[in-house]
Amino acid sequence: MIVVKDIEQSKKFYHDLFGLEVVLDNEGNVIMTEGLVLQQKDIWEKFLEREVISESNSGELYFEEKDIEKFDLKLKKLYPDIVYVNELMEHSWGQKVIRFYDFDGNLIEVGTPM
To answer: Is 93 helix (H, G, I), strand (E, B) or coil?
Structure first.
């Protein structure tokens, strides 16, 4: 589960980039395919009685893409203002990865399958 400010914007973002579909939409809590759950920030903060910290880097969503160069182009075209942790790079072991934040500061890594 990740916390988001704008459920509609986040549903579109994860659909556009990863093809995820909504399985259940329950007023501030959305379950998407592949098990991703989106929770509306104000609801979560009220429940926890604590503030959510954006870009805390305490967790990461991980996705794999066989054609990561194509994914990189799609990301830049659809979301040109996205904030990168690192643009497309290759690790010493041969895996290519991109890391960036969604609109709410949730860290996402997209890598080639190992």
So the answer is: coil
Question: Residues with Cβ < 8 Å from 91, sequence gap 6 or more?
Answer: 97
Token couple for 112:
């080639």
SS3 assignment, position 81: coil
Which amino acid would we find at residue 96? K
| Whether residue 66 is found in the same domain as residue 113 | yes
Q: What is the pLDDT of residues 37-85, one digit of tens each?
A: 999 999 898 888 888 888 888 889 999 999 999 999 999 999 999 999 9
**Domain coverage including residue 88:** 59-114
- Give the span between the Cα atoms of 113 and 96, in whole angstroms: 9
Q: Are residues 47 and 4 in the same domain?
A: yes
